[in-house]
């Protein structure tokens, strides 16, 4: 039964989701439902919502559903907190067969009561999982009642897993955040020179790194969405004068809505890689039009760049000409990786995402070299096929992709939410180069 | 011993178990040339793959029927069939497992009928398909594992000519453990069929070219012949009959069933070899006798250190039963034993084991980590179980010896050897060394505080051992 490895690896349903730059004129199809049986690497709506909301440190995160959904997401992310550790618990209503038959609303209400009594908090997020959508529990009503009873915010997150993919979960999370940040009285008074930082989850302290840069140039970070954020800070979100967005895939919707509702302008930025970090800081400063800030920034750039430049040059010499394959969650990450790799002399030969958006794929297409394979919602067979065909030396991906790379004898970079080292800013650029060198230049490859 | 169940609560705080299909995947990965498809939404499959991949460091390909809104409202038959088509095309499996997730079960999908229709429609008359209704809310991964084994046997075992081989069913242990059991059987020249055998499929050697269908696994022909075996040794004393593959073979084909505990610790390993030698008439090889002697030697060498140990043990019923026994044999008296499963057999068995323990112990079923934590506080100085126990280390400063599944914050979970005389020796060394490390880390400070500063005059009970009260 076992046939050659590379046969039949592209399903015809998937043909439109894979292109080779320069070879075809067609546009890549993305944002479609995963094809059954193709072993998609994608996660669900609930996963997307949880990723975005979980870093809210002082919230109770309650998963309404059977145990598995909560079990697989318990404290697996590397978001750090400067305060409460409550977010690192996984609470679940642990629905059982009888709840599925008779409904889980009462159990949910009791669960909220129990948790609020045990962990005094101002906000509870209640996540819907797939079967909640099917058994028809009225999350909205239960949350409303609980909210009135406990005089705190109990916010339903409509993240039933089958109604789309991870990207739909981002949206559900943004909706929940919009409810939370809504000012209670009139509009909060805006504060000058303050920014909200959207789409950074403070993995390995990345928010703190950026906060420090901003502080050095005289800009206050009002609140980050959602890395190391907490109730009080989020409540003041509408006072910021600018929203800057790192991970657009998850947060662009929130930024757009905040512009509509609170007239806060937004700007896409990226703090991954030297080039993007410098350019982004400059754009932020320009938008404030303050010459003093500008001066501070230029000083900072010189200082920080001179610190890391020699190291990066050293790495570039060693890594020049290597070929990378990228398969990550969202488009933003993919785009910045292309640029970051360029900074250390590495070409990207295959690139894909689970949930990239059309405009992001266009940018990717503009950035990569002719012949690079671009693919959306790939599966292991396709990843294997194109990595081998393109002669990639290195794969960037998450936990599920790692063993595949290793079995193929290919180096690997962890670019996921569980990492324990920062990849943002100047220090992050060095970390990435170091990690690339550690894996690519490891002596173990000599033996395989 | 005191019993406590947490199921009266309405909230689970930090789960101590995973869900049914997870166990089903593991069981099916032990079949030769198998592929699994989960009927339900995409996310469940992705989460489980991620968890399994992290533990075993192996690519874990599991398909999903990727049910969406439409499929959920109008039925998922089309999705499942399309999923089967694509999976078969890409992987060419020799056997297929179809597991349901919560969603499919809730909307009442009849996977038996759909798969039968499918095979007829496509003309795949000789492609075996094992179906398991395994909604996540129906039980933990432990039940999913055993139920799937039973379904595999129900589907594939035949009435065959009697033969001298024996059947062995193993609980969720490491690939290294499975290899160890196979080594004994080979040493003793016993012919056997071991199910599920994921010793290669989930722990394969590096080799080129990469094959996405790993080699190894229990051959289907061998499972077919299970009905004619001389006996079944099932390492499953905590099993209910409805989930017992061995019971099925006994009632259906008259294969005598011997239910034994997982061979960890001297007693359990002796039980295993006694039973095996009795059934096969073979002798315990000298090599294994030597290993037994070395284990005894190890136990004596470390008994005084172990005597200070007070353990909190958590995990799947079969595994924790064996770990408990090993701890008791060495004076590492348990203070909390917990499982996420609802398993009354386990409680009865533990009650027996614990009658002679001098230390009060609480047994928790359907447990969560919040409860385990509270009950271990100040009483336990050693946690034994999966990586999730790091919560106990972080919050209560109880060092954790990683054992079981999943181990996702360290490497090598797949290589942990803990069965038999040799495996127990390794395992016990880890327990002892963890106790020693902890002692060496703290004794200067605690003694200084107790006797020089005079604060906190009594050393904490776990350190001095034995203040806990006898039942
Ligand atoms: S509990 Fe049910 S819905 Fe949740 S992951 Fe498990 S099978 Fe999927
Ligand atoms: S049941 Fe739904 S929410 Fe839960 S893991 Fe599966 S796809 Fe995600």
TrEMBL record, chain A:
Keywords, sorted A to Z? Nitrogen fixation
UniProt-listed PROSITE patterns = NITROGENASE_1_1, NITROGENASE_1_2
GO MF term set:
nitrogenase activity
UniProt pathway: Cofactor biosynthesis; Fe-Mo cofactor biosynthesis
GO terms for biological process?
A: protein-containing complex assembly
InterPro entries attached here? Nase/OxRdtase_comp1, Nase_comp1_CS, NifE, NifE-like
Domain named Nitrogenase/oxidoreductase component: residues? 44-440
A Pfam family assignment:
Oxidored_nitro
For this chain, the family text in UniProt reads: Belongs to the NifD/NifK/NifE/NifN family.
Task of the protein? This protein may play a role in the biosynthesis of the prosthetic group of nitrogenase (FeMo cofactor).
- The protein's name in its UniProt record: Nitrogenase iron-molybdenum cofactor biosynthesis protein NifE
UniProtKB/TrEMBL annotation, chain B:
Entry's Gene Ontology molecular function annotations: nitrogenase activity
Pfam families with a match to the protein in the record? Oxidored_nitro
- Which part of the chain is the Nitrogenase/oxidoreductase component domain? 19-435
What SUPFAM superfamilies does UniProt report for this protein, alphabetically?
Helical backbone' metal receptor
* UniProt entry tagged with the keyword Cell division: no
Name the keywords, alphabetized.
Answer: Nitrogen fixation
| InterPro entries in alphabetical order | ChlB/BchB/BchZ, Nase/OxRdtase_comp1, Nase_comp1_CS
Q: Which family does it belong to?
A: Belongs to the NifD/NifK/NifE/NifN family.
Which PANTHER family does this entry report, sorted A to Z? Answer: LIGHT-INDEPENDENT PROTOCHLOROPHYLLIDE REDUCTASE SUBUNIT B (PTHR33712)
> What's the protein called, per UniProt?
Nitrogenase molybdenum-iron protein NifN
**Organism field:** Desulforamulus aeronauticus DSM 10349
Write the lineage as a comma-separated list: Bacteria, Bacillati, Bacillota, Clostridia, Eubacteriales
């Amino acid at each position: 039964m076992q046939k050659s490895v590379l046969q039949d690896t592209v399903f015809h349903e998937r043909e439109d989701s894979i292109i080779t730059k320069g070879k075809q004129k067609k546009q890549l199809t993305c944002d479609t439902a995963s094809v059954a049986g193709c072993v998609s690497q994608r996660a669900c709506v609930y996963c997307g919502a949880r990723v975005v909301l979980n870093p809210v440190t002082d919230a109770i995160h309650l998963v309404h559903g059977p145990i598995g959904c909560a079990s697989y997401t318990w404290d697996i992310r590397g978001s750090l907190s400067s305060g409460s550790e409550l977010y690192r618990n996984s609470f679940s209503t642990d629905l059982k067969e009888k709840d599925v038959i008779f409904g889980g609303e009462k159990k949910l209400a009791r669960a909220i009561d129990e948790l609020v009594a045990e962990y005094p908090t101002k906000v509870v997020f209640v996540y819907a999982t797939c079967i909640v959508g099917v058994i028809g529990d009225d999350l909205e009503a239960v949350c409303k009642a609980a909210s009135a009873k406990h005089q705190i915010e109990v916010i339903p997150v409509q993240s039933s897993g089958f109604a789309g993919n991870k990207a739909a979960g981002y949206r559900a999370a943004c909706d929940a955040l919009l409810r939370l940040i809504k000012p209670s009285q009139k509009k909060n008074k805006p504060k000058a020179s303050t920014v909200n930082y959207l789409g950074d989850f403070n993995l390995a302290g990345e928010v703190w790194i950026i906060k420090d840069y901003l502080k050095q140039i005289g800009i206050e970070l009002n609140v980050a969405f959602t890395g190391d954020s907490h109730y009080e800070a989020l409540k003041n979100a509408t006072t910021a004068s600018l929203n800057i967005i790192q991970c657009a895939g998850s947060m662009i919707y929130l930024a757009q809505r905040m512009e509509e509702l609170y007239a806060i302008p937004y700007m896409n930025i990226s703090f991954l890689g030297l080039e993007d970090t410098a350019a982004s800081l400059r754009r932020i400063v320009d938008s404030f039009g303050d010459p003093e800030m500008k001066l501070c920034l230029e000083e900072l750039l010189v200082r920080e760049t001179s610190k890391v430049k020699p190291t990066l040059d050293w790495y570039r010499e060693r890594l020049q000409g290597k070929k990378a394959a990228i398969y990550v969650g969202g488009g933003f990450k993919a785009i910045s990786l292309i640029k970051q790799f360029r900074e250390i002399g590495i070409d990207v030969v295959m690139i894909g995402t689970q949930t990239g958006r059309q405009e992001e794929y266009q940018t990717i297409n503009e950035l990569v070299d002719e012949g690079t394979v671009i693919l959306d919602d790939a599966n292991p067979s396709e990843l294997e096929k194109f990595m081998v065909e393109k002669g990639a030396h290195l794969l960037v991906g998450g936990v599920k992709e790692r063993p595949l790379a290793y079995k193929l004898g290919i180096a690997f970079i962890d670019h996921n939410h569980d990492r324990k080292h920062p990849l943002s800013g100047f220090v992050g650029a060095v970390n990435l180069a170091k990690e690339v060198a550690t894996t690519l230049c490891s002596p173990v490859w000599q033996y395989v | 011993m005191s019993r406590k169940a947490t199921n009266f609560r309405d909230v689970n705080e930090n789960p101590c178990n995973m869900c049914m299909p997870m166990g089903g995947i593991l069981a099916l990965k032990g079949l030769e040339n198998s592929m699994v498809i989960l009927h339900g939404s995409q996310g469940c499959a992705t989460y489980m793959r991620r968890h399994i991949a992290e533990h075993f460091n192996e690519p874990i390909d599991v398909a999903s029927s990727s049910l969406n809104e439409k499929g959920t409202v109008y039925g998922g038959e089309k999705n499942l069939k399309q999923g089967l088509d694509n999976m078969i095309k890409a992987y060419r499996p020799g056997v297929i497992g179809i597991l349901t997730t919560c969603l499919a079960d809730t909307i009442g999908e009849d996977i038996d009928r759909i798969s039968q229709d499918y095979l007829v429609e496509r003309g795949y008359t000789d492609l075996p398909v094992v179906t398991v209704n395994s909604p996540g809310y129906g039980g933990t991964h432990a039940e999913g594992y055993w139920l799937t084994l039973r379904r595999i046997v129900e589907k594939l075992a035949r009435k065959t000519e009697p033969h001298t081989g024996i059947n062995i069913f193993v609980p969720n242990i490491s690939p290294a453990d499975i290899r160890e059991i196979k080594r004994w059987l080979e040493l003793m020249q016993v012919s056997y069929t071991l199910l599920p055998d994921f010793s290669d499929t989930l722990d394969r050697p590096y080799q080129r070219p990469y094959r996405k269908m790993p080699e190894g696994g229990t051959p289907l022909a061998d499972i077919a012949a299970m009905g004619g075996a001389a006996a079944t040794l099932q390492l499953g004393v905590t099993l209910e009959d409805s989930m017992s593959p061995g019971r099925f073979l006994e009632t259906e084909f008259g294969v005598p069933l011997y239910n034994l505990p997982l061979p960890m610790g001297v007693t359990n390993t002796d039980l295993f070899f006694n039973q095996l030698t009795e059934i096969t008439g073979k002798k315990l090889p000298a090599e294994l006798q030597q290993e037994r002697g070395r284990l005894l030697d190890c136990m004596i060498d470390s008994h005084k250190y172990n005597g200070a140990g007070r353990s909190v043990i958590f995990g799947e019923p079969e595994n924790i039963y064996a770990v408990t026994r090993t701890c008791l044999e060495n004076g590492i008296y348990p203070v909390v034993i917990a499982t996420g499963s609802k398993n009354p057999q386990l409680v009865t068995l533990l009650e027996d084991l614990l009658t002679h323990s001098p230390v009060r112990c609480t047994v928790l079923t359907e447990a969560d980590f919040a409860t385990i934590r509270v009950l271990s506080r100040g009483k336990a100085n050693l946690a034994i179980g999966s990586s999730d126990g790091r919560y106990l280390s972080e919050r209560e400063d109880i060092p954790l010896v990683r054992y079981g599944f999943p181990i996702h914050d360290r490497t090598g979970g797949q290589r942990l050897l803990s069965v038999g005389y040799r495996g127990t020796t390794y395992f016990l060394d880890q327990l002892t060394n963890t106790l020693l490390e902890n002692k060496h880390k703290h004794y200067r400070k605690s003694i200084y505080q107790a006797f020089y500063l005079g604060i906190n005059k009594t050393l904490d009970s776990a350190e001095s051992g034995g203040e806990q009260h006898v039942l």
